[in-house]
Specification:
By secondary structure, this protein is an alpha+beta fold. Helix content is 33%, strand content 19%. The chain has a single domain (36-181), classed as Nuclear Transport Factor 2, Chain: A, CATH 3.10.450. A 4-stranded antiparallel sheet has the order 1-2-3-4. The longest helix is centred in the first third of the chain and has 18 residues, at 2-19.
Length: 184
Amino acid sequence: MKTTLYTLLPLALLLSACTTPVEPALKDIGTRNGPCVEGGPDTVAQRFYDLRIDQHAQGKPDTAQLEQYRPYLSARLFNDLANDRAARNKLAKLPNWDIFSGQATAPTDARVHSASRILNTDARNIPLRVDLTRDQGKGGQSMQWQDEVLMIREGRCWVLDDVRYLGNPPTAPTGTLSQALEPR
């Protein structure tokens, strides 16, 4: 009887462990006080660039555009662009270039690389390459370059937090959007 009890006890514990729901190790990362776009980091980044291309957005975003971009931007970047007086003054003094692509004119096509190659599903930030193209019109050569967007998690949302200009833009004063906005 005692032997049977010793064999059944571990079996009962094993069965109870199988029926207990498992909570994910990372339920929520931080908080998000603004609206959210559904999808993973690559989906959100692609939707952001698609929105800008559909709007034929050029240069620095105005207040109305920033409100449309709110679900796609991190709280830090949105506040830097919308509320921070030093960042706005710095942005106003910068040459007229597209801050989300680092070129003088915005792209006419953007393809965000897939995040499926990233193995860590609990990552808090993911840099993604973006292939950008600017069609120069009839008879013009199209221009192609690559940038990198830093996507971070705020709460359960993926949002754009920074842009690294990889296309060696002659008009961009620094290597990233955040650096361009830093007061000096």
